[in-house]
Amino acid sequence: xxxxxxxxxxxxxxxxxxxxxxxxxxxxxxxxxxxxxxxxxxxxxxxxxxxxxxxxxxxxxxxxxxxxxxxxxxxxxxxxxxxxxxxxxxxxxxxxxxxxxxxxxxxxxxxxxxxxxxxxxxxxxxxxxxxxxxxxxxxxxxxxxxxxxxxxxxxxxxxxxxxxxxxxxxxxxxxxxxxxxxxxxxxxxxxxxxxxxxxxxxxxxxxxxxxxxxxxxxxxxxxxxxxxxxxxxxxxxxxxxxxxxxxxxxxxxxxxxxxxxxxxxxxxxxxxxxxxxxxxxxxxxxxxxxxxxxxxxxxxxxxxxxxxxxxxxxxxxxxxxxxxxxxxxxxxxxxxxxxxxxxxxxxxx
Length: 349
Known about the structure:
Elements lengths: L21 H14 L11 H14 L4 H17 L7 H8 L6 H11 L7 H7 L2 H8 L4 H10 L2 H10 L2 H11 L7 H16 L10 H10 L3 H14 L1 H10 L6 H4 L5 H6 L3 H10 L5 H10 L3 H14 L4 H20 L12
Helix pairs in contact: 1-2, 1-3, 6-11, 7-9, 8-10, 12-14, 13-14, 17-19, 17-20
């Protein structure tokens, strides 16, 4: 062959991307994002999709650069074309609308569609008080009760054991020692079963119990009014009246229900004029005991100054004294509600 007849060298052809399916594309995109340091919330996917994604990532092994670029560009184009996304299915929609629709509407939708509540069922169970949790496990097996007590706050668990019959409490205590063999799937199913029982209850118009609400009202009432109403409650329902008394916290309870070490914290939110008026009005028992308790837990110098100021203040009106005492008590209640101090339980009112 002569030189002039030699054919020109052909240019190298461009690499061709592999043919891959949608599941493989998803795995490639997730792996690329993770390699770039992005936080991909894979655990929010249904478990079957998590398993399929993991299987795909394990089977792909090596992806050439051309295929990677094509998949990533396709993914980016789809994102740019997306204007709005909606949650998948009724369960997703209910989760998205949580807090925006009424609890009653949510219950009706779940009953009509058969969709159970999403999320971790134990989050809801942990918020319940022992009085609400005990009926849930009364008819359940020892093993289910043991899992519940293992999952909730230790103080609540201790209260529940104390309210159970001795034999059942002992059996549950032993069963807790065997919970290491319980699988995560079984724990989730137990949580779902227990929360389903809660879902069967009708939605209440008022979330706080009547005892707490009435106790709060009595806390803000004049002592004469409060005593009269409590006497009436005693004649109608003595058990309910006793519970209301436990929910009441007034100035006379300071000496018996506040730890001496917490007095300084309570007084930090009370101005001197209010404190002097309150102490000047607390001249009869049991109010005087609380006044003396407050003074005895101050420094000697400040306590002497307050006593002198109280003497100079002289007699105060019943209304003025009660208003000042209510301010002191309101500050103590606020600290207790915020968890800054702990009120000692009492049955007296």
